[in-house]
From TrEMBL:
Residues 61-126 form the Peptidase M17 leucyl aminopeptidase N-terminal domain. The keyword rRNA-binding does not apply. Belongs to the peptidase M17 family. Keywords: Aminopeptidase, Hydrolase, Manganese, Protease. This is M17 family metallopeptidase. CDD domains: Peptidase_M17. Pfam families: Peptidase_M17, Peptidase_M17_N. It comes from Flavobacterium paronense. Residues 166-466 form the Cytosol aminopeptidase domain.
Length: 473
């Protein structure tokens, strides 16, 4: 896609996207642009509406913005136009940027347009979205210098599109080795270093908890370490993402919903996408990220309920439920990151529990931390872009839920309540009392239903949230 600023519409033929702020259905002042007049009886800029007019060899698409334009709404509005009106896009398209748009609103609009090119039918024969043709040109009209905002919007969308695909593609495609290869290739392209521990190296290092989860799978586990080290970095942030490429539940096999368990690596995918975006934006913060990637499957070698396994931190773990596996690989990921890289702040993302969905539904992710400053900054970063967080307690009153009689800790409380909290308490046990650690349980927001597909699919939640948090440190 080529991006170009133009001064006017002289001699232009193609598609013109014209955002319109809401007036009223009874407004006596019509909307006018490029010699086209639209009366309020047919269109007045109401949110989630649009109106098409053919004139002067151009398709004019008037896009309703509503009265309030928050970041997420703008992104969705423009994604909808790109996804659902793609037949009206000519070889050349112009976006008319309203004078009142702030840089982040420009960013949201452009990012949304690109996200609208995503198609869940990866294995279907289909025509490319017009935006994806090599000779496609996206023009814009603006009285301001907004090139930086446009470029940033494109980079955000590119990272989120990659994350969409990582989560939505099937588990026979997205294996641990595929994720390791993706990280290596992306690191070489965008400028971060990648180290991968296979089974032998992970065994040598002592990542016992991580390896226990992958024992029942034919897919070799991959412990992916990524390092973005810009010159004169101001701070050092550590990230960990759950990379279970498919979750059968292990010997505590799932009895429902298993068909969607390709999404159980959405936390890891968010970290991979964030690493692409952070390095693409050249943020002046050092970032070390780990994605423990493996498949929780079933065979004669699978770990058993009531097993006692070891961990990288040296703590023993009693296995109560093999379907509480995500916290086991995160435990080794957190321990390895903190002990070997010593980041100032650590954030992990995981589709960890159904409990958090029962608590918060599908509107926001659960946030667990004892660092109030970190909590505030993460919530602010999420609110700004529409990836919301809500803090839940980490009180020591919940500590008995993970106490074991036979081992240092157990991986599941066995209780039908407070599952997200006891999972977070388990992770906290492996943070070596780090004073600036946060856990984000994204089970309700990483994979879901919306207007852009008929089945559940990836949202890329976390990619922009984490990047926005780091960008504003």
């Amino acid at each position: 896609m080529k991006i170009k600023k133009i001064q006017n519409l002289d001699n232009f033929t193609g598609t013109i996207l014209i955002p319109v702020f809401e007036t009223t259905a009874k407004s006596i002042v019509p909307i006018e642009y490029h010699g086209v007049t639209v009366y309020s009886q047919v269109f007045y800029g109401k949110k989630d509406t649009h109106y098409l007019v053919e004139k002067y060899d151009c398709t004019h698409v008037f896009i309703g913005l509503g009265k309030e334009q928050d970041y997420k709404s703008l992104k969705t509005i423009f994604r909808r136009i790109a996804a659902k009106q793609k037949e009206v896009f000519a070889k050349n398209v112009i976006v008319v940027i309203p004078e009142s748009f702030l840089p982040n609103q420009v960013e949201a609009a452009i990012s949304g347009l690109l996200l609208g090119t995503y198609d869940l039918g990866h294995y279907k024969k289909k025509e490319l979205h017009p935006f994806l043709n090599t000779d496609f040109e996206l023009n814009y009209i603006s009285n301001k210098d907004i090139e930086e905002a446009i470029t940033k919007g494109i980079k955000i969308a590119n990272a989120q599109l990659e994350t969409f695909a990582l989560v939505d593609l099937p588990p026979n495609k997205i294996t641990p080795k595929y994720l390791a290869h993706w990280a290596t290739e992306t690191g070489a392209k965008y400028g971060f270093e990648v180290t991968v521990f296979g089974k032998d190296k992970a065994t040598e290092v002592g990542l016992h908890s991580f390896l226990s989860v992958g024992k029942g799978s034919a897919q070799e586990p991959q412990f992916i370490i990524m390092e973005y080290k810009p010159d004169n970095a101001k701070k050092h942030i550590g990230l960990v993402g759950k990379g279970i490429t498919f979750d059968t539940g292990g010997l505590n096999i799932k009895t429902a919903g298993m068909v969607q368990m390709k999404c159980d690596m959405a936390g890891g995918a968010a970290i991979l996408g964030a690493m692409q975006l952070i390095s693409d934006l050249k943020l002046p913060i050092r970032v070390t990220a780990i994605v423990p990637a493996c498949e929780n499957s079933v065979d004669a070698l699978s770990f058993l309920p009531s097993d006692v396994i070891q961990s990288y931190a040296g703590h023993s773990i009693e296995i109560i439920d093999t379907d509480a596996e995500g916290r086991l690989i995160l435990a080794d990921g957190l321990s390895y990151l903190i002990r070997n890289y010593k980041p100032e702040t650590v954030v992990d993302l995981a589709t960890l529990t159904g409990s958090v969905v029962g608590t918060l539904g599908y509107e926001c992710a659960g946030l667990f931390t004892n660092n109030e400053e970190l909590s505030k900054k993460l919530q602010q970063a999420g609110d700004a872009i529409g990836e919301r967080l809500w803090q839940l307690p980490l009180w020591d009153a919940y500590k008995p839920d993970i106490e074991s009689e036979i081992a240092d800790v157990k991986n599941y409380s066995g209780k039908p309540v407070a599952g997200a909290i006891s999972a977070a308490k388990f992770l906290e046990f492996f943070t070596d009392n780090h004073t600036s650690w946060a856990h984000l349980d994204i089970a309700g927001v990483a994979f879901g239903d919306d207007e852009f597909a008929k089945t559940k699919h990836a949202t890329a939640y976390g990619v922009h949230l984490i990047t926005n948090y780091i960008e504003n440190l």
